[in-house]
Structure of Caspase-1:
Amino acid sequence: GKPKMFFIQACRGNKPDPGITVGYDEMDARNNGQKLYSIPISADVLVMYSSYEGYYSFRHPQRGSYFIQSLVRQLKTAEDRNLLSILTNVNREVAIMYTEKEMCTVVSTLTRRF
């Protein structure tokens, strides 16, 4: 099916993170060449949260959310990278670049690369 993607910028708790230092694809062969198959209703959904459950989500007073800033930056420079690679880069950037610690979370039931 068509992917459904949600990017949620919101706190998911009241704790600060202190941080620490430091179509068809290759799966078709499994279907014995059959072209028709069914997938679960919940397939092809991706949700990315700006923070881990139980923790704050931060924003800059003038520039806004660190998560949204990074997501936009990564999407603009995506070129030929697949979606999960882009979102992994968002995770890394948000986790490392800012003084306030924040860890984005991705929940995915995608059945192919987008």
